[in-house]
Amino acid sequence: MSGLSPIQGVEAAARNAQDAARSLRGATSGAKNALLVAIADALEDQRGAILEANARDVEDGRASGMKEGLIDRLLLTEERISSIAAATRQVASLPDPVGEVVRGQSLPNGLLLRQVRVPMGVIGMIYEARPNVTVDAAALALKAGSAVLLRGGRAALHSNAALVDVMRTAVTANNLPADLVATIDEYGREGGVALMRARGLVDLVIPRGGAGLIQTVVRESLVPVIETGVGNCHVYVDRAADLDKALAIAVNSKTHRPSVCNAAETLLVHRDVASQFVPRVVQALQGAGVTVHGCDKVQALASNVVPASEEDWETEYLALDIAVGVVDSIDGALSHIRRYSTGHTEAIVSQDVAAVREFTSSVDSAAVMVNASTRFTDGGELGLGAEIGISTQKLHARGPMGLAELTTTTWIVEGDGHVRI
Amino acid sequence: MSGLSPIQGVEAAARNAQDAARSLRGATSGAKNALLVAIADALEDQRGAILEANARDVEDGRASGMKEGLIDRLLLTEERISSIAAATRQVASLPDPVGEVVRGQSLPNGLLLRQVRVPMGVIGMIYEARPNVTVDAAALALKAGSAVLLRGGRAALHSNAALVDVMRTAVTANNLPADLVATIDEYGREGGVALMRARGLVDLVIPRGGAGLIQTVVRESLVPVIETGVGNCHVYVDRAADLDKALAIAVNSKTHRPSVCNAAETLLVHRDVASQFVPRVVQALQGAGVTVHGCDKVQALASNVVPASEEDWETEYLALDIAVGVVDSIDGALSHIRRYSTGHTEAIVSQDVAAVREFTSSVDSAAVMVNASTRFTDGGELGLGAEIGISTQKLHARGPMGLAELTTTTWIVEGDGHVRI
């Protein structure tokens, strides 16, 4: 404990992070990769201390009546630490975004122009009680040449402190300043607010967690924020769909991993194929344990369908529930999506090029799937490498945010005494 | 007057703009270019009405004691209207950013992946009493496929109303919805606040004006903002500079157009060349009418130098004033820049590759000039076409913001029944 107020403490941490970030700005990819490998090794070497700290958090969680689902997110095991270390090594193996020349040309007057990726500086991360995010976020930030300030969930306090401790020691052992990685958890909730207010000291805040956390950060932050991850994703089965593919895509989109943001929450079926497709898909979904909430037409076509209310169309269930509706046309599907989508991912299943063209040009979301599962909106699946989250906003980053999205750019203009006339 | 409260009125305008933007989303470049040419023609055809409205604003301005510099910014003439129309035609001639495939590949599993530029949706513009911004902003937004909500300075109320009226008529005549271009000036200051709060309805707000306006918008807005244009730009003359080039660059950076954000405000000179360079550059600057504010060493080396205070290093003069300091090393220059820069543009004059490499890799600004005037940080000069402002923030856009920066992207993923395994 430092004896500083939360605002003083966070501002001091941010200034230290800014200073530390400078030493990483010019670091080679080799040096950054060596650091990440050293962090991975240290996490495995010191798993004893990490597991001990984690056991305290889990015990506290159980004592305060935390649900088993949340306990499971919080829990670390030897295997989980190894997989966190493996993910860190994987970040080391990704191409370095820093130094990439994004655009460049020589101008008519002889000026040589290039736009180059450079580190962001200091990245703040506000997240819930998932200790793996502590290391993931630090690894991605470091690889992108930035320092990271971590504000984790209170329930993971001891785990995060242990993980940060291990990482800082590894940073120092690699002759870099420890303040490249720091937690502000000791300053509690007020510290989180101070982080969001530290405009000019912190370059970017990324909230990662439930809709409530994200909305709070978006509302409160003066530091630029990237909104992540709320996904009320739709699958639209067109009149010209291959219904076998539609069935596989609908079931996969819903059930492959229901708790994540790219899972489908609503299925819309064109009326021309409804009588053929709805009974099949409802049965398949119910067979996979899904509760189907349907409109009147769906209720008429299949059994055991719960009536869907307005709320169902709005809800990101993140569970084995789905809302199913019949629409009169592709326009009906598009206007439903416009009304209820959170702008994450929408899919169309159709063999008709005109329908596909209309859907892809009209839907205003981060990703549009054509004859593919919504579950493909994922940095790893799309070949972007590790991701720090999936942005559902339109500025800076949209969709899976990889290393490139954690950088900014500088224009470098080389002349030979050039002045404006 | 609509009888709505400012919040109701602005929200209604934003919804109308959203609806209107949809019809522009799929518009061809040809259709958008024809619209812009029609707007340009209409501005010239109806210059009588525009000049009449502008005369009212100018008269009101004079009556309320507005300074002549501001009156000049507000004033429209036949010639100025022609140059606004010409700028609109120039936007029509630029390549369309919408539809550009930014990245793309086919993935190992056969998914075809592309990241495509798409329109932002609704862009809000908050600016001061410069009627040309009304048309510039609308032209850029329309070309980028978005609707625009304009909140101009109160002093240009009648001018802006007339310009918007002409543009809306031209939009309608081109079979597009008038609400692609709208002013919310009738809702006054509260309307501006409502615009900043309209998150979810408005996709982006760009403030354009003085530091006070920009800071207010950054602080108050819930809609994502791009910060533009505050430039405390530095020129550093290295020990290895070609001093003739340095002289030309320093004078050009300061005096070519002192009132704009890419003008230099501070000159830093390496001590090894100070006794040779400072007297020359001070004399040249003073000969061009510049007041030189200098550190002790500069005062000792040249005459008629005003002592520079802490405030001078911080000030964006936007006038024929410059702060001049002698630094002990390139590190001294870098740490001065770190402390006082607003992150817009810094220049180095040097023939030494090591110094250039250090400077370009250490300076954390939107643009770095090497042996060139700071005045080149400009969309037109850098070959990006027209610009809507110069971003000094790190997210989304950094440096001159052209058409591409007014768009967002969507990932389009085409499969053939692909599901995740």
From TrEMBL, chains A, B:
> Might you report a single GO cellular component term?
cytoplasm
Phylogenetic classification of the source organism: Bacteria, Bacillati, Actinomycetota, Actinomycetes, Actinomycetales
Pathway given for this chain reads: Amino-acid biosynthesis; L-proline biosynthesis; L-glutamate 5-semialdehyde from L-glutamate: step 2/2
Question: Which keywords accompany this UniProt record?
Answer: Amino-acid biosynthesis, Cytoplasm, NADP, Oxidoreductase, Proline biosynthesis
Entry-linked Gene3D superfamilies: Aldehyde Dehydrogenase, Chain A, domain 1 (3.40.605.10), Aldehyde Dehydrogenase, Chain A, domain 2 (3.40.309.10)
Give me any GO biological process, just one.
Answer: L-proline biosynthetic process
Q: Could you tell me what this protein is called?
A: Gamma-glutamyl phosphate reductase
The UniProt entry, under PANTHER family, shows:
DELTA-1-PYRROLINE-5-CARBOXYLATE SYNTHASE, GLUTAMATE SEMIALDEHYDE DEHYDROGENASE
Q: Which domain of life is it from?
A: Bacteria
Describe the location of the Aldehyde dehydrogenase domain by residue ranges.
10-287
Q: Where in the cell is it found?
A: Cytoplasm
